Amino acid sequence: xxxxxxxxxxxxxxxxxxxxxxxxxxxxxxxxxxxxxxxxxxxxxxxxxxxxxxxxxxxxxxxxxxxxxxxxxxxxxxxxxxxxxxxxxxxxxxxxxxxxxxxxxxxxxxxxxxxxxxxxxxxxxxxxxxxxxxxxxxxxxxxxxxxxxxxxxxxxxxxxxxxxxxxxxxxxxxxxxxxxxxxxxxxxxxxxxxxxxxxxxxxxxxxxxxxxxxxxxxxxxxxxxxxxxxxxxxxxxxxxxxxxxxxxxxxxxxxxxxxxxxxxxxxxxxxxxxxxxxxxxxxxxxxxxxxxxxxxxxxxxxxxxxxxxxxxxxxxxxxxxxxxxxxxxxxxxxxxxxxxxxxxxxxxxxxxxxxxxxxxxxxxxxxxxxxxxxxxxxxxxxxxxxxxxxxxxxxxxxxxxxxxxxxxxxxxxxxxxxxxxxxxxxxxxxxxxxxxxxxxxxxxxxxxxxxxxxxxxxxxxxxxxxxxxxxxxxxxxxxxxxxxxxxxxxxxxxxxxxxxxxxxxxxxxxxxxxxx
Length: 516
Hints:
- By secondary structure, the protein is mainly alpha-helical.
- It has helices spanning 62-73, 76-79, 81-87, 92-120, 124-132, 138-171, 173-176, 186-203, 207-236, 253-276, 278-281, 287-320, 327-331, 337-359, 361-370, 377-390, 400-429, 454-468, 486-489, 492-514, and strands spanning 4-7, 23-26, 31-33, 180-181, 184-185.
- The strands form two sheets. A three-stranded antiparallel sheet has the order 1-2-3, with no helix packed on it.
- Strand 2 and strand 3 (31-33) form a beta hairpin.
- The two termini are 38 Å apart.
């Protein structure tokens, strides 16, 4: 094979009995198992969805990654991020600045973790085996999966709400005022179920279908958002007074008290993908493709989308006398059936694109990693869909304080702790060098103690306590869960990353010195 070299996973003779499977290292740095050698043996740590993607199937281009991020960023919760910050007292400039800075920050761990996916063709739970151990990797994987299931429920409820409200404009008042069940009209539950079924149908067709869906969904959603902006601009005769509203916080101490926890919350919004981005970059055609695609896709798209939401909301205030931050509620004010149908399709595509990519792919792989012999990608996706409904997570977004400070802040702190360990292990300690076949072999290089690396687990627990132990407000005590840690709570993601990476590096380095 041109541009490749066969090596043993630990430097031993390739193909020797009982030894590691030989690897092929390509000139561009990507690594795969030698396809001429017998495949990975079947055991409790591998299945078809967890195996390394062969280089021949790593075909995603810069546009594919760009389209992925455009499709994921253009969704209802990211549209309303700016509204949540304005509700907390920021003006639109402060809100957009906070979102832009947060996404530049979270892009860094996104690219660092994504490197492993493209280089070795492995998903997130397999990547985590290098630091946590073959069994220990289930711990961060299940933390990530639990968060994804909650997000899946939130997004599915939003998609169902879009069907309910916009269909009500077409079907009449009886649709919106149907008899209630569990506090909501039964027609809204029907809309929720319908959207859930659509999601399951798309994801059941696998990752290649997802790639094709994101390719056309991304430009469609952009057109839909710009059409909404054009519509409200025409009705308003320009934009309303929202852009002239001063900040209630100013730029003094009151602003900074809100800014830092809000920044951590905005980082927490995509801290999920900062962990499991290898699930997508494992299909990358090159490191350049994933780096350029993500750098062009994430911070620019989120910032422009936040600005777009502010402009549209400003126009709604000029037209209706009050700001309408929910694009579904705003679209429901249209009178044209054609416009309503287009808005409904845009909402469905936007919500589908983010929910399937961000909140189904990861837990599907994570659950497959937990029980490889029983759960494949499609089964894991179905489990995710069921758990996402059972959690009833839509109450999380009813209050901006709970949504930004509690939900996003705590999630960001916990996931930042995991990210710190993965990045320290891969970049600082291993210098991006992994033994690919060993990631699937019990008793091998990443077996540690019975499949668990206690150093990673200890770093996760300590970092997690430091990051979220001081959480306060909402369901937490006003003085914080652990009052002494309350000052750290507003910086949860940063505390999680810094503390876990530092502790893991120290413990691992000390262990190496002990064994010399």
